[in-house]
Amino acid sequence: MRFGPILKRSFYERPTVEVARGLLGKLLVHGPTAGIIVETEAYLGGDDLASHSARGITDRTRVIFGEAGHAYVYLIYGMYECLNIVCEPAGKPGCVLLRALEPAAGTGIMERRRAAARKPEDLASGPGKLTLAMAITRAHNGADVTRGPLVVREPAARQEVEIQATPRIGISQCADLPLRFVIRGNRFVSGVAQGAARGSAHRLEV
Questions:
Q1: Which domains can be identified in the chain, with CATH numbers?
Q2: For residues 175-196, b (16+ Cβ closer than 10 Å) or e, as one string?
Q3: In DSSP terms, which residues pair with 164 in a beta bridge?
Q4: 138-142 own/partner pairs: CB under 8 Å, 24+ apart
Q5: Which of 24, 123, 139, 185 sits most deeply, having the most CB atoms within 10 A of its CB?
Q6: What's the whole-number mean pLDDT along residues 23-48?
Q7: Which residues are CB-contacts of 43 (< 8 A; sequence separation ≥ 6)?
Q8: Rounded to an integer, what distance in angstroms lies between the CA atom of residue 47 and that of residue 13?
Q9: How high does pLDDT run on average in the chain?
Q10: CA distance 133 to 78
Q11: Rounded to whole angstroms, how far apart are CA atoms 27 and 184?
């Protein structure tokens, strides 16, 4: 599959919500596997109590306060790893959780890694499934996604996507904020069906 250029650091040095929306339609690439990003969530820090960085700088969250364009990978439920990308200028916390991909390259490899998946739509339709399918672990925490084996690229050809904003999934604090973004109508997203999701939609060329 042909890819466009790797996203530059300046792409991530912007407000977190802008980055979360802008990542939709881009390609997450790790080695021989790649997927179109179809679902993201923005975590803002500060008053956003659902964000890990709301607690301030710790050994765990230090990367979020650092240079934009780095991976923040953490473990949930003692078994699933989640991939976030750090946003905002250094010193200001913000990151985007990648929640779902539409497989685009190396699908057979993803299927072997995700043997429990019953259909292609289930390979990377959730943050834990995504990291398993793409072989992303906590060893990638702090990785620079503007270079190296784990990167985000533009698609080979620009295309228009319709973005829908909804509340985030699986959190108890600040749960009503419309900070989850999906490509409307894409069958690879996680959680509630697109047609039932609350929130606004608009078109964006990527």
A1: 3-157 (3.10.300.10)
A2: eebbbbbbbbebebbbbeebee
A3: 182, 201
A4: 138/73, 138/74, 138/75, 138/81, 140/71, 140/73, 140/83, 141/63, 141/71, 141/72, 141/73, 141/74, 142/63, 142/70, 142/71, 142/72
A5: 123
A6: 96
A7: 16, 50, 51, 52, 53, 84, 94, 95, 96, 97, 179
A8: 20
A9: 92
A10: 18
A11: 17
Model pLDDT for residues 156-203, shown as the tens digit of each residue = 988 889 999 999 999 999 999 999 999 999 999 997 644 334 444 444
Confidence (pTM)? 0.91
| List of residues 6+ apart from 112 with CB closer than 8 A | none
